[in-house]
User: Fold this.
Amino acid sequence: MSDLHSINEAINKKAGRKLLPSIGVGLSLIALVWFALSYQREIFAIVVAIAVVLGLREIVRAFGARSILISFNSLAIAAIGLAYAAWNGGVGGLAVATAIAIPLLLIGSLIQGPEGFVAKATATTFSLLYLPFLAGFLILLAVPSTGFQRVMTFMVLVGCNDTFGYVIGVLFGKHPLVPTISPKKTWEGLIGSTIFTVLGGCLAFNYIMDMHWWIGIIVGLMIVFTATCGDLIESAMKRDMSLKDMGTLLPGHGGMLDRLDSVVLSAPAMWLALELIKNFL
Assistant:
C-alpha cells in the first residue's frame, strides 16, 4: 500500500492534480451523460445548459478579477435561450438565437455607461460565443434519433484524447509542447493522445456508429487537434488572468470550464464531420 501511495503521490506531483479524484469525477460525468441520453435525451440538453451556466459563472468571476465586470445573469439567460433554440430549432435556431442575444447583451452593457464599454462588450461577446454557442453543437449532436450513439462516440474521442494525453504525458513526457502557455503539456502526451484517440475512433465508429472504421481515423485526428487547441486556449486564458484553475467545483479537474475546454471546440467539429458523412457517404 505504501508503494501504491508513493506512486500516486509522484503522479500527483508531476501532473499538478490529484489522480484518483480526477478519475472519480470523470467516471461520474460519463455516468450522468449516459443516464441522460438513455432515459430522456431532453435531459442531456438540460445537463449541458447547467454545465454552461456554471462555466459562465467561472468566466465572469475571472473577468471580474481583472476589473472587467460583465453580467452573469444576462449571460445565463442567454445560455438557456441558446440551448432551447438548439434543441428545438437545430443549427438554424442556434444561429438566430445567437444573433439576437449578442445585440441584447451589448445594449445591456451600454446601459451601464461608456466607462470600460469596449472591454465589457468584448468580454461579454467572447463569453457568449465561447460557451453557450459552441456548447450548442453538443446539444445538436444529441437531437437526431441516433443522438445517443453520436454523443457517446464523441465522448469516446474526447475522453481518449484527454485521458491518454494526461497518462502518457505524466509517465513519459519530457519535451514541452507549448511551454509558454501550458508547461505540463508535452509532445509525448500529444503522441499518446493521437494514437489512442485514433484507435478509440476506429472502434467507436465501427461498433457504436455502425460506420466504416476508417472514418474514425479522420475524425479522431480532427478531435485531437480541436481538443488540444481548446485546452491550450483555456490555459492561455488562465495564464493571462494569473489563475491556476478557473474554479474548484470538480475535484481533480478544477472548475467546470477546465472540463469544458476541449469539449466546446470539438463539438462543432464533430457535428460538421457527421453532417459531411451523412451528405457525402
